[in-house]
Amino acid sequence: MINIALFASGAGSNAAVIIKTLHQYITPQEANVAVIITNNENAGVINIAHANNIPVAIINLKKKDEAAQTDIYQTVLEQYNIDFIVLAGYLKKIPAAITHAFPQQIINIHPALLPAYGGPGMYGTKVHEAVIAAGEQQSGITIHYVDEVYDHGAIIFQATCAVEATDTPDSLAQKIHQLEHQWFTKTIAQVLQSQK
Q1: Can you tell me the distance from the alpha carbon of 73 to that of 121, in angstroms, rounded to the nearest whole number?
Q2: Sign of CA dihedral 188, 18, 79, 107
Q3: Does the annotation place 108 within a ligand binding site?
Q4: By the 8 A CB rule, do 124 and 99 touch?
Q5: Containing domain of residue 182, as a range?
Q6: Which residue in 97, 98, 128 sits closest to 110, CA to CA?
Q7: Binding site annotation covers 60?
Q8: Which one from 50, 110, 152, 177 is the annotated catalytic residue?
Q9: CA of 180: how far to CAs of 25, 59, 65, in Å?
Q10: How far apart are CA 45 and CA 36, in angstroms?
Q11: Is 110 assigned a catalytic role?
């Protein structure tokens, strides 16, 4: 059994889809979401966790250095015997000690075609605004392993969508969400099965 921790900072739409669809691709005996971890005590993902009877760990990283943050993460991950981490709209950088402890066992989804439009501060609407401002004709999603550098780890999967002249950041975000919901769970399951 692979115990998965879902990390999210906001509404949790990707987390909700993962919880709902994971066992369409991999059996409950093979993998399960053991905990949802958030740095935001007001995050919508907390309600999603409660609705699905999944424990929630709300972690406070404010004014803590990397060593202290690492201790917080390690405590929660050990408490729930976590084997695999999925970042589903999580806005905090994972400490290097955690990425080293979970090599190729932390994956993230980014709302653009990395390596373009990634790095510190590039998340959510900011990404879509930058893509449109640059006159790109396509955007998409990138699912990748997480290392100690923002949006840098090896790419696992990408899917694309057209950027139309009439697109706004909101309309592009809707296209990206559709790709996320279509591909993220499926890709998670494939990665888990490949690591058996």
Answers
A1: 22
A2: positive
A3: yes
A4: no
A5: 2-194
A6: 128
A7: no
A8: 110
A9: 16, 25, 32
A10: 8
A11: yes
What is the value of pTM for the model shown?
0.95
Digits of tens for pLDDT over the chain (196 positions)? Answer: 999 999 999 999 999 999 999 999 999 999 999 999 999 999 999 999 999 999 999 998 889 999 999 999 999 999 999 999 999 999 889 999 999 999 999 999 999 999 999 998 898 899 999 999 999 999 999 999 999 888 889 999 999 999 999 999 999 999 999 999 999 999 999 999 998 7
Output the pLDDT for position 144.
97
Tell me, what's the pLDDT at 91? 86
**Lookup result for tokens 């971890």:** 37
Contact of 179 with 141, CB cutoff 8 Å: yes
In three-state form (DSSP H/G/I as H, E/B as E, the rest C), the secondary structure along 110-163 is: ECCCCCCCCCCCCCCHHHHHHHHHCCCCEEEEEEEECCCCCCCCCEEEEEEEEC
Q: Does 196 belong to an annotated binding site?
A: no
Closest residue by Cα to residue 184 from 4, 34, 14:
14
CATH of the domain at 137: 3.40.50.170
> How many domains does the structure of the chain reveal?
1
3 among annotated binding-site residues = no
139 bridge partner residues: 161
Whether 89 contacts 12, CB under 8 Å:
yes
